[in-house]
Design brief:
Length: 387
């Protein structure tokens, strides 16, 4: 699965070459291309294997974490317009060494992209709903008609609109009015939360509880993060909700590999809770970045998730704030009774370093926690997509 030799890049005949800066594999390289709309797109070479990373619109301001599909290594892209600005993350060796050593980690990594490819894709109806939500010309009636095509999402939206979280005083049964009560952004959050439930499932009963805990933790953390955005002006409510909702995707993918793999090395740890838990903990951030890369979601979301374990190490000030919010939302979710697993240990939210970094007081957190405690049951029930 892993690429061991750098391949020669194919000559490009359809794009105008602005600069051609080639460097060794250990340093990385960047080539700036110009498309017809004069928007600069950066092609970046992996500092480990020199394979091109997935091309995205250049962001010349914020360093982001990127992943190489060929060798699976992560790197930090500091500036798309300058050479020598693609570097390996300091907390990881070359992941190919795990495979060469024949380790369990190497075996799991070998199955990572196959497991990601097996993840449920967004159904056509869901994609259409999300498109309508972000279309300024769409209206509630059009949105409601599309939602009606998916009974599970319809039920989730009605349940959410009628929940105490949104201050419902009377039961609403009309989808268009329910959508109006929630607002477009809240509808998007419900759709994302409900659809994410399908990513945290496994056919093996012994792992189903772990998947359930991960999903509940993610949803609660997402709503906690959104509440934090109301207290921290630098945070965008939509982005932080989505990032917090997705922060355990890597764990879900890894659990699915451990639960179903026929590889002998992986199967050997299946009944050893401490060993597979350690494997998931070790690789979860890497797996999450690869999922987000495959889905082509904005890299700053993955960067915030990656550094949420140690936000002060995040090289981007703007993304660092998001990383702190995710870190604190994870602690809040655990304190509310929804940790990601039975072994998880989190600091008391008011004592969490991210609390001070975000400029929050104990009073802020107490008010947030009280609101969440009153409505968590309704929120989780509404998004569970279970009748």
């Amino acid at each position: 699965m892993f690429s061991r030799k750098a391949k020669r890049r194919a000559s490009r005949t359809t794009a105008k070459v602005e600069k051609d800066l080639t460097h060794s594999a250990s340093q990385g390289a960047t080539t700036l291309l110009e498309n017809r709309s004069d928007e600069q797109i950066a092609e970046i070479l992996c500092p480990f294997c020199a394979e091109p990373l997935a091309r995205r619109p250049a962001n010349n301001e914020e360093p982001v974490v990127s992943a190489c599909r060929s060798c699976l290594n992560l790197c930090l892209v500091r500036a798309h317009e300058q050479p020598d600005q693609v570097t390996a993350l300091s907390d990881w060796p070359d992941l190919r060494e795990y495979e060469r050593a024949g380790s369990v980690l190497g075996a799991v990594l070998c199955e990572l992209h196959a497991a990601i490819d097996r993840l449920p894709v967004l159904p056509e109806v869901t994609q259409k709903i999300l498109t309508l939500i972000h279309d300024p010309l769409s209206d509630m009636e059009t949105l409601a008609r599309e939602i009606e095509r998916d009974p599970a999402i319809s039920l989730s939206l009605l349940r959410t609109a009628n929940s105490a979280w949104y201050g419902a005083r009377n039961s609403e049964t009309d989808l268009s009015r329910a959508c109006a009560r929630l607002g477009l952004k809240a509808v998007a959050n419900v759709v994302w939360s409900a659809q994410s439930r399908g990513l945290f499932r496994t056919s093996r009963k012994e792992f189903s509880q772990g998947m359930q805990m991960l999903w509940q933790h993610s949803v609660v953390a997402a709503y906690c993060a959104q509440q934090l955005a109301d207290l921290v002006p630098e945070l965008d409510r939509d982005s932080i909700f989505l990032a917090a909702l997705q922060h355990e995707l890597g764990s879900a993918v890894l659990l699915s590999i451990i639960a179903t793999s026929i590889d002998e090395k992986i199967a050997s740890i299946r009944n050893a809770n401490d060993r597979w838990s350690a494997t998931v903990e070790r690789l979860r951030r890497i797996a999450c970045i690869h999922v987000l890369e495959v889905w082509e979601l904005p890299r700053h979301l993955g960067t915030a998730i990656y550094f949420s374990d140690s936000p002060d190490r995040c090289p981007s000030p703007a993304t660092r704030t998001m990383a702190h919010a995710i870190a604190l939302s994870k602690s809040l979710a655990a304190a509310l009774g929804y940790p990601p697993n039975k072994e998880a240990q989190y600091e008391e939210p008011s004592q969490h370093p991210s609390c001070q970094a975000l400029g929050l007081s104990e009073t802020n957190l107490r008010s947030l926690t009280e609101k969440m405690e009153e409505n968590l049951g309704d929120l989780l029930s509404a998004t569970s997509m279970v009748a």
